[in-house]
Amino acid sequence: MEDFKRLRDLMVDTQLIPRGIKDERVLSAMRKAPRHIFVDDYMQHKAYDDMALPIGDEQTISQPYMVAIMTELLELKGNEKVLEIGTGSGYQAAILAELSMEVFTIERKALLAKKAEERFQALGYGNVHVITGDGTLGLPEESPFDRILITAGSPKIPEPLIEQLADGGIIIAPVGIRFSQQLLIVRKSKGALSEQLHVPCVFVPLIGEYGWSGDEEDS
Ligand code: SAH
Question: Which residue of 82, 107, 115, 145 shows the fewest CB atoms closer than 10 Å?
Protein backbone atom coordinates (compact mmCIF):
# COMPACT_ATOMS: atom_id res chain seq x y z
CA MET A 1 0.00 0.00 0.00
CA GLU A 2 1.54 3.26 -1.08
CA ASP A 3 1.68 6.27 1.17
CA PHE A 4 -0.64 8.50 -0.84
CA LYS A 5 -0.47 11.45 1.57
CA ARG A 6 3.30 11.56 1.13
CA LEU A 7 2.94 11.40 -2.68
CA ARG A 8 0.39 14.23 -2.51
CA ASP A 9 2.72 16.46 -0.53
CA LEU A 10 5.51 15.63 -2.96
CA MET A 11 3.23 16.58 -5.86
CA VAL A 12 2.51 19.98 -4.30
CA ASP A 13 6.12 20.63 -3.29
CA THR A 14 7.74 19.59 -6.58
CA GLN A 15 5.11 20.24 -9.28
CA LEU A 16 3.01 23.16 -8.04
CA ILE A 17 5.00 25.48 -5.78
CA PRO A 18 8.16 25.61 -7.98
CA ARG A 19 5.96 26.51 -10.99
CA GLY A 20 4.45 29.47 -9.21
CA ILE A 21 1.16 28.29 -7.67
CA LYS A 22 0.79 30.56 -4.63
CA ASP A 23 -2.82 30.44 -3.44
CA GLU A 24 -2.53 28.69 -0.08
CA ARG A 25 -6.13 27.47 -0.24
CA VAL A 26 -5.47 25.79 -3.60
CA LEU A 27 -2.27 24.19 -2.31
CA SER A 28 -3.95 22.83 0.79
CA ALA A 29 -6.94 21.49 -1.18
CA MET A 30 -4.50 19.62 -3.40
CA ARG A 31 -2.64 18.28 -0.38
CA LYS A 32 -5.99 16.96 0.87
CA ALA A 33 -8.10 15.61 -2.05
CA PRO A 34 -7.35 11.91 -2.72
CA ARG A 35 -6.53 12.09 -6.45
CA HIS A 36 -5.82 8.32 -6.55
CA ILE A 37 -9.52 7.64 -5.84
CA PHE A 38 -10.40 9.46 -9.09
CA VAL A 39 -8.47 7.06 -11.36
CA ASP A 40 -8.99 3.36 -12.02
CA ASP A 41 -7.27 0.96 -9.62
CA TYR A 42 -4.61 -0.14 -12.11
CA MET A 43 -3.57 3.53 -12.53
CA GLN A 44 -3.42 4.49 -8.85
CA HIS A 45 0.36 4.28 -8.56
CA LYS A 46 0.61 7.02 -11.22
CA ALA A 47 -2.08 9.28 -9.74
CA TYR A 48 0.36 11.86 -8.35
CA ASP A 49 2.71 11.91 -11.35
CA ASP A 50 3.26 15.09 -13.35
CA MET A 51 0.91 14.18 -16.22
CA ALA A 52 -2.64 13.74 -17.42
CA LEU A 53 -3.89 10.12 -17.19
CA PRO A 54 -6.49 8.12 -19.12
CA ILE A 55 -9.83 7.61 -17.35
CA GLY A 56 -11.54 5.49 -20.03
CA ASP A 57 -13.87 6.52 -22.86
CA GLU A 58 -10.90 8.31 -24.51
CA GLN A 59 -10.98 10.99 -21.80
CA THR A 60 -8.33 12.14 -19.31
CA ILE A 61 -7.90 13.46 -15.79
CA SER A 62 -5.91 16.69 -16.16
CA GLN A 63 -2.30 17.06 -15.02
CA PRO A 64 -2.13 18.27 -11.38
CA TYR A 65 -0.43 21.53 -12.40
CA MET A 66 -3.20 22.31 -14.89
CA VAL A 67 -5.85 21.69 -12.20
CA ALA A 68 -3.94 23.97 -9.82
CA ILE A 69 -3.47 26.83 -12.27
CA MET A 70 -7.10 26.82 -13.44
CA THR A 71 -8.31 26.70 -9.86
CA GLU A 72 -6.00 29.53 -8.80
CA LEU A 73 -7.23 31.68 -11.70
CA LEU A 74 -10.82 31.26 -10.43
CA GLU A 75 -9.86 33.26 -7.29
CA LEU A 76 -12.24 31.28 -5.06
CA LYS A 77 -12.90 32.66 -1.59
CA GLY A 78 -15.38 30.04 -0.34
CA ASN A 79 -18.85 31.45 -0.93
CA GLU A 80 -19.19 30.90 -4.68
CA LYS A 81 -21.62 28.92 -6.78
CA VAL A 82 -19.48 27.23 -9.42
CA LEU A 83 -20.28 25.50 -12.72
CA GLU A 84 -17.80 23.05 -14.23
CA ILE A 85 -18.16 21.70 -17.78
CA GLY A 86 -16.46 18.31 -18.26
CA THR A 87 -16.66 16.32 -15.01
CA GLY A 88 -14.41 13.55 -16.34
CA SER A 89 -13.01 11.74 -13.28
CA GLY A 90 -14.52 14.29 -10.87
CA TYR A 91 -11.12 15.29 -9.44
CA GLN A 92 -11.29 18.93 -10.51
CA ALA A 93 -14.84 19.18 -9.15
CA ALA A 94 -13.61 17.80 -5.80
CA ILE A 95 -10.97 20.53 -5.65
CA LEU A 96 -13.64 23.13 -6.46
CA ALA A 97 -15.88 21.63 -3.77
CA GLU A 98 -13.10 22.10 -1.20
CA LEU A 99 -12.83 25.78 -2.08
CA SER A 100 -16.34 27.04 -2.84
CA MET A 101 -19.89 26.74 -1.55
CA GLU A 102 -21.64 24.69 -4.22
CA VAL A 103 -20.48 22.98 -7.42
CA PHE A 104 -22.56 21.90 -10.41
CA THR A 105 -20.60 19.77 -12.86
CA ILE A 106 -21.84 18.60 -16.26
CA GLU A 107 -20.51 15.55 -18.14
CA ARG A 108 -21.75 14.34 -21.53
CA LYS A 109 -20.63 10.73 -21.03
CA ALA A 110 -23.10 8.97 -18.75
CA LEU A 111 -20.65 6.35 -17.49
CA LEU A 112 -18.07 8.94 -16.41
CA ALA A 113 -20.80 11.00 -14.72
CA LYS A 114 -21.96 7.93 -12.80
CA LYS A 115 -18.46 7.00 -11.66
CA ALA A 116 -17.74 10.57 -10.54
CA GLU A 117 -21.05 10.70 -8.65
CA GLU A 118 -20.17 7.48 -6.82
CA ARG A 119 -16.78 8.92 -5.83
CA PHE A 120 -18.35 12.11 -4.43
CA GLN A 121 -20.75 10.03 -2.36
CA ALA A 122 -18.07 7.70 -1.08
CA LEU A 123 -15.81 10.61 -0.12
CA GLY A 124 -18.60 12.73 1.37
CA TYR A 125 -18.51 15.66 -1.05
CA GLY A 126 -22.10 16.71 -0.41
CA ASN A 127 -21.86 20.08 -2.19
CA VAL A 128 -21.24 18.65 -5.68
CA HIS A 129 -24.08 17.96 -8.12
CA VAL A 130 -23.36 15.90 -11.24
CA ILE A 131 -25.53 16.42 -14.32
CA THR A 132 -25.32 14.29 -17.47
CA GLY A 133 -25.76 16.32 -20.64
CA ASP A 134 -24.33 18.90 -23.02
CA GLY A 135 -22.51 21.40 -20.83
CA THR A 136 -22.18 23.94 -23.63
CA LEU A 137 -25.82 24.79 -22.90
CA GLY A 138 -24.97 25.49 -19.25
CA LEU A 139 -27.58 25.05 -16.56
CA PRO A 140 -30.01 27.96 -16.90
CA GLU A 141 -32.20 26.84 -13.98
CA GLU A 142 -29.29 27.18 -11.55
CA SER A 143 -27.78 30.33 -13.03
CA PRO A 144 -26.22 32.78 -12.45
CA PHE A 145 -22.87 31.25 -11.51
CA ASP A 146 -20.06 33.18 -9.81
CA ARG A 147 -17.45 31.07 -11.54
CA ILE A 148 -17.49 28.81 -14.62
CA LEU A 149 -14.67 26.41 -15.47
CA ILE A 150 -14.55 24.57 -18.79
CA THR A 151 -12.19 21.59 -18.70
CA ALA A 152 -12.38 20.60 -22.38
CA GLY A 153 -10.93 22.46 -25.36
CA SER A 154 -13.35 24.71 -27.23
CA PRO A 155 -13.21 26.89 -30.35
CA LYS A 156 -14.75 29.72 -28.29
CA ILE A 157 -16.60 30.24 -25.02
CA PRO A 158 -20.15 28.92 -25.50
CA GLU A 159 -22.57 31.85 -25.58
CA PRO A 160 -25.02 30.37 -23.02
CA LEU A 161 -22.20 30.20 -20.46
CA ILE A 162 -21.41 33.88 -20.88
CA GLU A 163 -25.08 34.64 -20.29
CA GLN A 164 -25.17 32.45 -17.17
CA LEU A 165 -22.14 34.15 -15.57
CA ALA A 166 -22.95 36.47 -12.66
CA ASP A 167 -21.75 40.05 -12.65
CA GLY A 168 -18.30 40.13 -11.07
CA GLY A 169 -17.84 36.54 -12.26
CA ILE A 170 -14.95 34.73 -13.96
CA ILE A 171 -14.85 32.04 -16.67
CA ILE A 172 -11.69 30.00 -17.26
CA ALA A 173 -11.57 27.95 -20.45
CA PRO A 174 -9.03 26.33 -22.81
CA VAL A 175 -9.80 27.97 -26.15
CA GLY A 176 -8.18 27.28 -29.51
CA ILE A 177 -7.98 24.71 -32.29
CA ARG A 178 -8.97 21.10 -31.81
CA PHE A 179 -5.61 19.79 -30.56
CA SER A 180 -4.06 22.81 -28.84
CA GLN A 181 -5.43 25.67 -26.82
CA GLN A 182 -4.57 28.55 -24.51
CA LEU A 183 -6.29 29.25 -21.21
CA LEU A 184 -8.63 32.20 -21.57
CA ILE A 185 -9.75 34.27 -18.58
CA VAL A 186 -13.06 36.09 -19.07
CA ARG A 187 -14.36 38.57 -16.51
CA LYS A 188 -17.81 40.13 -16.43
CA SER A 189 -17.98 43.50 -14.74
CA LYS A 190 -21.05 45.79 -14.87
CA GLY A 191 -22.22 43.78 -17.87
CA ALA A 192 -18.99 44.31 -19.84
CA LEU A 193 -16.60 41.45 -20.70
CA SER A 194 -12.81 41.55 -20.60
CA GLU A 195 -10.56 38.77 -21.89
CA GLN A 196 -7.00 37.78 -21.11
CA LEU A 197 -4.97 34.90 -22.56
CA HIS A 198 -2.84 32.75 -20.26
CA VAL A 199 -0.69 29.57 -20.65
CA PRO A 200 -0.86 27.14 -23.61
CA CYS A 201 -2.51 23.79 -22.89
CA VAL A 202 -3.95 20.65 -24.49
CA PHE A 203 -7.40 19.33 -23.54
CA VAL A 204 -9.72 16.78 -25.09
CA PRO A 205 -12.40 18.48 -27.22
CA LEU A 206 -15.57 20.07 -25.86
CA ILE A 207 -18.24 18.41 -27.96
CA GLY A 208 -21.69 19.93 -28.08
CA GLU A 209 -24.06 22.43 -29.60
CA TYR A 210 -21.76 25.40 -28.83
CA GLY A 211 -18.47 23.45 -29.00
CA TRP A 212 -16.96 21.10 -31.58
CA SER A 213 -19.17 18.75 -33.57
CA GLY A 214 -18.81 15.13 -32.48
CA ASP A 215 -19.17 13.70 -35.98
CA GLU A 216 -15.76 12.04 -36.03
CA GLU A 217 -16.27 10.49 -32.62
CA ASP A 218 -19.91 9.53 -32.15
CA SER A 219 -21.30 6.93 -34.49
N1 SAH B 1 -12.24 17.89 -15.17
C2 SAH B 1 -11.91 16.52 -15.49
C3 SAH B 1 -11.11 16.36 -16.77
C4 SAH B 1 -11.88 16.77 -17.96
S5 SAH B 1 -11.64 15.81 -19.41
C6 SAH B 1 -11.21 15.83 -14.34
O7 SAH B 1 -10.93 16.48 -13.33
O8 SAH B 1 -10.97 14.63 -14.45
C9 SAH B 1 -12.93 16.57 -20.33
C10 SAH B 1 -14.29 15.99 -20.11
O11 SAH B 1 -15.21 16.82 -20.78
C12 SAH B 1 -14.47 14.61 -20.68
O13 SAH B 1 -14.91 13.73 -19.69
C14 SAH B 1 -15.53 14.80 -21.77
O15 SAH B 1 -16.41 13.68 -21.90
C16 SAH B 1 -16.26 16.01 -21.26
N17 SAH B 1 -17.03 16.79 -22.25
C18 SAH B 1 -16.70 17.07 -23.53
N19 SAH B 1 -17.65 17.84 -24.10
C20 SAH B 1 -18.61 18.05 -23.13
C21 SAH B 1 -19.86 18.76 -23.08
N22 SAH B 1 -20.34 19.42 -24.14
N23 SAH B 1 -20.54 18.76 -21.93
C24 SAH B 1 -20.08 18.09 -20.83
N25 SAH B 1 -18.93 17.40 -20.83
C26 SAH B 1 -18.20 17.39 -21.96
Answer: 115
3-class SS of residue 187: strand
- Residue of minimum CA distance from atom 2 in ligand 1: 88
Could you give the residue numbers annotated as active site? Answer: 62
Buried b (16+ CB within 10 A) or exposed e, 92-125: bbbbbbbbbebbbbbbbbeebbebbbebbeebeb
Give dist(CA 136, CA 17) in Å, integer.
33
My answer on whether omega of the bond before 64 falls inside 30° of 0, hence cis, is no
This prediction's pTM: 0.97
Q: What atom of ligand 1 comes closest to residue 207's alpha carbon?
A: 19
Domains and CATH numbers, the chain: 66-201 (3.40.50.150)
- Measure the CA angle with vertex 140, ends 95 and 210; round to 5°: 85
Report d(CA 136, CA 118) in Å as an integer.
24
Q: Give the C-alpha separation, 186 to 176, whole Å.
A: 15
Question: Residue 34, SS3?
Answer: coil
Between the alpha carbon of residue 44 and those of residues 14, 51, 115, the distances in Å are: 19, 13, 16
- Please say if the pLDDT value at position 219 is more than 50: no
Q: Is 176 in the pocket of ligand 1 (CB under 6 A)?
A: no
* 216 confidence band (pLDDT: 50, 70, 90): low
